Amino acid sequence: MGLTKDYQKFVPAGVCNIVNSQNGHIISVDKNISAVSACESVNFYNLRTGEIEKQIRRDNHQVTAFAFSPDKRYLAIGYDDGEVHLYDQQNNSENFTVFAGHKRGVNTLTFSHDGFTLASGGKDCVIILWDILYETGKFRLNGHTNSVTQMQFTKNDKYLISSSKDTQIRFWNLATHSCFYTISGSTSEIYGFSLIKQDRMLIVASAEIELVIYELSWFESEDEEVKSDDDEENHNLKKIKLVSESLTGAEYVEEENDQGNKIIKSKKRGSLIRQAKGRAIQITVSPDEKIVSVLGGDLVDVFRVYTDEEAKKRLSKKLRKAKKKIDEKEVQEQQEITEADISKDVTLFISRIGDFKSDSKMKWISFSKTFAKVDENKREYRVVCIQNNNTVHGIILTTDFKMNEIIYESVVNLNKRGHRSEIRSLAVAGSDDQFITGSEDCAVVWNIETLLPVNRLEAEGMKELTAALYAPGDKFVIFGAKDGTIYVFELATCELVNEYKKAHEGAIWSLSLLPDKSGFVSVGSDKKAQFWEFELISEPGSRRKILKLNSGRSTELEDEILCCTITNNGKFIIFGLLNFTAKVHYLDSLKFFLSLYGHSLPVMCVDTDIESKLLVTGSSDKGCKIWGLDFGDCRRSLYGHTDAVTAVKFNRSTEEKLFFSAGKDGRIIQWDAVKFHKIQVLEGHKAEIRTLGLAMSGKTLISTSHDKSIRIWEESEELVVLGEQETAQVEEDYLDKMIDAEDIVPGESTEQESEMAVKKSLESIKGTELILEAVEIMRAERAAEKSGDLKRNPHPLITAYGSSTLDHFILDAITKVRSSNLEKSLLMVPFGYVSDILKSLSQCIKLHYKMEVATRVVIFLLKIHHNYISRALHLFPMIQDLKAEIVKELDEAKDLVGFNAAALKLLKLELEERDNVKIFKDVSQIEGKGKKKKERRALIRTLV
């Protein structure tokens, strides 16, 4: 076996410029703090100071959805790989719960009103319910045929409503794990809905310009007994009762089909027209449910929701107006028809009162929980929104309910945290302490240590800075624009000192510094390469030196020049052309030397090594080619990208010939240009990468992307061993095959509406291996005990777990498996190990050792392997013992918990009586002492 070469590994060192993801979410946490999804992070911004108060980050996985529990204690974050991470905000530790159930990205998350249940909906058309207290999955709901877009629990948390792109809204019964009602009247994809007025009104937003309004009537079963069973139909009628009051005019609207359920009936009350163009992106409700906002393509439509009393007044007012228009000679029958028609008008309950928009398209909005009452008819709402230009705005929305008008004002923003548009150019200072990026309208100077913007360079008429270059000394920076203009800025004053219009007749694509640092060369779409010389001149009337550019020689090639580079020894200049070739010219005479052809699409980027011996070219054909500059021979073609290569950059070492390539696939790959090995892949960007920059030290790499993020990569002490990488890749492929292989769960079919929540994952496979290993150790230990080997030391794992007995050791090993993956791990345990596990857990239950986990595992194993266990005669005695012991021990645990709860309540009452305060309650709710004494005596009697 030959020797393998080791390489230094590049690792992520920071991200800047990204304020929010293009399709991210925002949630107002309190008056000043807002949580925003930004690529793989959730940032908590203080909108007053513009700083990040807190950040939750998961590398290489983009945040697709997140939600807070009603009390803001828990934060659930969904990622593009289908995982949901649950964070406890009261616990500042980095521990979090992982729920892995979706096969694709998570689209939406919602908490129940009690905060104990989390529902997640994904692109895999599946809804999963998670138990937060037990940190495990409850069940998954199958039924939708397209991505789930939104979910909401009803007020009593008994039912879940979900919408999907399959044009359906489904009502799920969480007790029976089934869909009992479906609204399928939409003709286009449904993107959101809102449930208001105590779950009596459903507002549906879709790709159409109309909002559809439904009235929901809820029923529940009565507990009273039926005297006669002869008439089954009457029995069913008596068994349910209406629990929600009907809206005004409901008696005039024909009921829709109840679809055979006895829980809900819906009526379509009408529709409202939106003024926004395009689909409805989001629908939100104010905290007081007074207004509903619908976010569209270009603006936000605002609708007012009227109370039942207001709706009745509006009905009376409309009836009076209608009666005035009716001729006195008309009969009373026509008046009744008019009353029915007016009662069906949906604007009795909800009507459009205005809209608001910002300077750029909004992608998501959120109402703050706090709002102010200006007077009886006016209220001020705080709205935060993210825009597609990489910023966050805070808006004050003032609503006049008397005039039905709104006034909006943007009061705060995060515009100074980065670029508003896509970054097109990048340059690193020679001192390695800063770098500069250029976009469509401005340039930003960044501190490479803090990753914070230092200065902002702007000029009137400046557009699309496609190339950037630091002048020697790092006091001036030069930009090339798409309109052919060259700008020179002084960094100390952030002023534009010189502007050269029509430097090129087309876009300037690249600027390259001459090796002697006397000037630079610019190339563009006009097929020309223009040479410029630096000159420092004194400003009239002051000692200030200003950089001036003098135009020198130029040359014209046969096609558009997309990129250029100059060898370090100053011998050659290389151009990448639109005609699929790279041209090598002598720098001094500009005479043609070599034509490098082999790419099948335009050459997008070129670079040379520090010794001027090798040249690498990247092309839109997804490949990189390494060329020798002596004879123009192609050393090797390297293919690792799945899209066009946009940037290449050699390292600055004379010992190793390594280079980076970046592409539109969002990946950065490091290659060995001598041995032609793929060293490592740097993943993090979620869109095409535009530029690469390497610090003079060669240890820091900077990349910019279409996702508006700037990422810093630093060389670490960790080594990359190619042999180990290949082995790890083989193992990863094997694990992926294992994960993709579906398990057969007894009693479940592939088309079942409800099934287990957790999917097979690497963590669940490791959990299964841990349980099987523990059983094998227990068997070996017991075999050694039977053989009489008393001097044998226990297994090191038993000592590490601190288990007192082998039965405890099995349960200790099971508790090492993450609670959310425990059921899936137990499902993969072969039946040959189940009897040993059950016997050990039976002993643990008798000894009161970790009763809760042991009972949960026993019940699950009995449920899964019921058919086999019922036929195993040798397990019958153990099953009989478990049947008696589990009930007995659980009753004892229940009594113990109840006794402790009563004792704590008694202690609480004693403290309240002694200090004359009400613990954990508002002072205004303090009750009389007489009632306290009665409660105390009742508790004492209970305890005695």
Estimate the strand proportion: 35-45%
Unreliable spans are 224-238, 331-337, 922-930, 939-944
Mean pLDDT: 85
CATH topology of the domain at 422-648: Methylamine Dehydrogenase, Chain H
In terms of topology, how is this protein built?
Layout: E1 6-16, E2 26-28, E3 33-38, E4 41-46, E5 51-57, E6 63-68, E7 74-79, E8 83-88, E9 97-100, E10 106-111, E11 117-122, E12 126-131, E13 136-142, E14 148-153, E15 159-164, E16 169-173, E17 178-183, E18 190-196, E19 201-206, E20 210-221, H1 232-239, E21 240-242, E22 264-273, E23 282-285, E24 291-295, E25 300-305, H2 308-325, H3 332-343, E26 350-356, E27 362-373, E28 378-387, E29 391-400, E30 405-413, E31 425-428, E32 434-438, E33 443-447, E34 453-457, E35 465-470, E36 476-481, E37 486-490, E38 495-500, E39 508-513, E40 519-524, E41 528-538, E42 545-556, E43 561-566, E44 572-577, E45 581-586, E46 592-597, E47 603-608, E48 614-619, E49 623-628, E50 634-639, E51 645-650, E52 658-663, E53 667-672, E54 678-683, E55 689-694, E56 700-705, E57 710-721, H4 722-740, E58 754-755, H5 762-786, H6 796-801, H7 806-815, H8 822-827, H9 831-846, H10 851-864, H11 866-869, H12 876-915, H13 929-943
Antiparallel strand pairs: 1-57, 2-3, 3-4, 4-5, 6-7, 7-8, 8-9, 10-11, 11-12, 12-13, 13-58, 14-15, 15-16, 16-17, 18-19, 19-20, 20-21, 20-22, 23-24, 24-25, 25-26, 27-28, 28-29, 29-30, 31-32, 32-33, 33-34, 35-36, 36-37, 37-38, 39-40, 40-41, 41-42, 43-44, 44-45, 45-46, 47-48, 48-49, 49-50, 51-52, ...
Helix pairs in contact: 2-3, 5-7, 7-9, 9-10, 9-12, 12-13
